[in-house]
Design goal:
This protein is mainly α and about 120 residues long. It is built from 5 helices and no strands. It starts with a helix and ends with a helix.
Length: about 120
């Protein structure tokens, strides 16, 4: 018998509690992704409103945005590695179409949740 474990009564954080990962639903994901396209770093009030709307905790929304920014950074880095190197005598330098970049990412994410 562990005295501390049996007599520990936290009001906020319990180090003995095993937390289960919460997956976002397709509806939550769509809302979070569209919000991310508008603002990648929402303030506390915006996160609180999103959390209320989606049935999440503000901390859960904050972590989702943090993870999504990391994913966007990685995707951008991968796209930059794939860009062709401009030759001195080239008149044409093809850039990827960034206008549809987020739309294609959102479609890809949503299709993976639908299967």
């Amino acid at each position: 018998m562990d005295y501390y474990k049996d007599n520990f009564c936290p009001t906020f954080y319990n180090p003995f509690e095993i937390k289960q990962r919460r997956r976002t639903s397709p509806h939550q994901l769509k809302t979070l992704e569209s919000s991310f396209l508008e603002n990648t770093k929402p303030n506390a009030n915006t996160r609180r409103l999103l959390a209320q709307e989606l049935g999440m905790t503000p901390r859960g929304v904050q972590i989702w945005f943090q993870n999504r920014r990391a994913k966007a950074k990685l995707q951008k880095r991968k796209m930059n590695e794939q860009e062709p190197i401009k030759q001195e005598n080239d008149n044409y330098y093809p850039y990827p179409d960034y206008s549809s970049y987020y739309d294609s990412c959102l479609d890809m994410i949503m299709s993976s949740y639908m299967h």
